[in-house]
Amino acid sequence: MNRRRPPTHGPLFAPAPRRVVDELTVLLPVPPSTNALHGHGAGRPVRSNAYKAWIVAAGWRLQAQRPGRVPGAYILLLAVPEAETKADLDNLSKATSDLLQKHGVIDNDRKARRVVLDWHREHAELAATVRVVPPGVILESVSPIWPRTGALEAA
């Protein structure tokens, strides 16, 4: 006899929408470095085994914390445990942003207006804080757009 499995997805099984919040912080396992996210198979990039394992573990860790959702533009603050990785600090934001988008915590990682990265020594997990940037607010630039006067002459 051929038995059909009950569906585990679709409208009846969609998770409840996340509540909208101005700020949230979640703790996640440290992701693989951006350099280790993909390998190449059949002439195209494929997710590495380490990345696939992290997506599952971090997804469960994220869901257990039941974070809200920050719609629209946001600031992402990442505090990474220094002792838990040998990766460069700036190689840890991509996987984290993608995970937050996949789980509906942010609408689109393209809407990040600022990403701040820092090391910490408090515990063994990455702390990701997402803060809303209210509509119409323009963040003051903290990065130089042009070289300082005299910087080229000094070189």
Automatic annotation (TrEMBL):
InterPro entries per record: Endonuclease_RusA-like, RusA-like_sf
Top-rank taxon = Bacteria
Q: What is this protein called?
A: Uncharacterized protein
Query: Which species is this UniProt entry from?
Result: Methylorubrum suomiense
